[in-house]
Design a protein that fits this description.
It is a single chain. The chain has 266 residues and is α+β, with helices and mostly antiparallel strands. The chain is 61% helix and 13% strand. The protein contains nine helices and five strands. It is elongated.
Length: 266
């Protein structure tokens, strides 16, 4: 939707031309900044934080917003990452996801639809979450699922201190923002996973020579095949609850110390 279309639609619902134009401009600005995010130059947490900030700017009446990244194919929608535009949003989302496991974003994720409340203190959908957040002075919430075809990426949570802040106009603008935001968040997640895999592979490659040396030392002491020596190394790692590479490094270091002691006669 163009800025002109958004302004016209809002004006048709009785909003003033000035407010409609300002809201449409904020949305377009936020969408432009969202499109300009270069995921390769940002960590996942920083990018999610930027998206939260843009959402708070794009949705009229918002005092703060948060972005939640959810693990795929999880019936309980396990949280992978959280980011917030303001500290009070982070506090609310901690209550929602960790303390109570109840709230608008969880409902939006489970039902894959936009969820609103204009009076959290008396909200019957979330009888524990609503009153607790209402006592914090936060009374309105708008939760938008981040959806791709057949896939739930996460959700955007938007909060306001006033009551009945998020009307149909705010919901529509929020949904317009959520669609490209879902793409940006998913791309950032894929890149982050690729970078993690690269790091893991680099670690594995650098660890392999040490593990091979430890296997050779164990075979020299106890005989047997390389597979049997590796299994002994693995059991040592499990028994000590220590990483395999750490155990292997210790075996190599001990062998080096013994060799030096024999050489120096100490």
């Amino acid at each position: 939707m163009s800025e002109f279309e958004a302004t016209s639609a809002a004006s048709g619902r009785g909003l003033s031309a000035e407010r409609a134009s300002a809201d449409a401009a904020d949305l377009q600005s936020s969408l432009g900044e969202l499109a300009g995010l270069v995921t390769g130059s940002l960590g996942l947490g920083e990018l999610l934080g930027r998206v939260a900030t843009f959402a708070a700017r794009a949705i009229p009446g918002a005092d703060g917003a948060g972005v939640t990244l959810l693990a795929p194919d999880q019936t309980d929608h396990r949280v992978e990452a959280l980011a917030a535009s303001d500290p009070f949003v982070a506090e609310i989302d901690e209550i929602q996801y960790v303390t109570l496991r109840e709230g608008p974003c969880i409902t939006a994720a489970l039902e894959r639809r936009t969820v609103r409340s204009g009076s959290l203190g008396g909200e019957k959908m979330w009888p524990r979450f609503g009153p607790r957040v209402g006592k914090m002075g936060i009374h309105s919430a708008l939760s938008l699922p981040l959806l791709l075809p057949g896939h739930l990426v996460g959700a955007i949570n938007v909060y306001a201190r006033g009551k009945e802040v998020f009307d149909d106009h705010a919901r529509e603008l929020g949904e317009l923002f959520a669609s490209p935001a879902a793409v940006a968040v998913q791309n950032a997640k894929i890149l982050d996973q690729a970078l993690q895999l690269t790091t893991q592979l680099q670690t594995a490659l650098s660890s392999r020579p040490i593990i091979d040396q430890a296997i050779g030392l164990l075979r020299g002491r106890n005989g047997g095949t390389a597979e049997e020596a590796f299994e002994r190394l693995r059991r040592m790692s499990q028994a000590e609850n220590t990483k395999l590479i750490t155990v292997a490094q210790r075996i190599v270091d001990e062998a080096v110390r013994r060799a030096r002691a024999r050489h120096t006669g100490i």
